[in-house]
């Protein structure tokens, strides 16, 4: 006779994002923030974003768990305004803060709810209690 056991548990990502972890605490704060902001993990995946951020960039559900450059549509500042290459897009503040472990700031040309817009992005790296880099927190402001 076959024997089957079933065990239900939270996904690994949910277990790591307890309210006591840095990403968990920031995700909880950002989830209901009035400002356009988002949190990504060290792999560049969106952990959470504020409703204002979702509205500003005209993003559809679900965005969490997706790679940031698959969520935001970044464009070149040149006249034709073509999409940025992957190498150039990796220099955006959210990802640069993760890659460098330092505060990053820059202007981005992004697809917004009313067409292309320019936003100022300020990102800070997030670290755990052992000073290991776990992600970044980014705030956006229209210019």
Automatic annotation (TrEMBL):
Highest taxon of source: Bacteria
Gene3D superfamilies, alphabetized: PAS domain
Designated name of the protein: PAS domain-containing protein
Species assigned in the record: Planosporangium mesophilum
The organism's taxonomic lineage, starting at the top: Bacteria, Bacillati, Actinomycetota, Actinomycetes, Micromonosporales
């Amino acid at each position: 006779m076959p024997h089957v056991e079933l065990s239900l548990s939270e996904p690994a990502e949910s277990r790591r994002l307890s309210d006591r972890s840095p990403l968990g605490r920031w995700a909880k704060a950002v989830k209901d923030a009035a400002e356009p902001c988002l949190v990504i993990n060290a792999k560049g995946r969106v952990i959470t974003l504020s409703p204002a951020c979702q509205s500003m960039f005209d993003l559809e559900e679900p965005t969490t768990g997706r790679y940031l450059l698959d969520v935001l549509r970044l464009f070149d500042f040149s006249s034709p305004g073509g999409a940025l290459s992957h190498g150039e897009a990796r220099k955006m503040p959210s990802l640069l803060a993760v890659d460098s472990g330092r505060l990053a700031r820059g202007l981005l040309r992004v697809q917004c709810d009313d067409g292309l817009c320019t936003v100022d992005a300020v990102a800070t790296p997030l670290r755990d209690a052992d000073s290991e880099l776990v992600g970044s927190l980014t705030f956006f402001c229209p210019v």
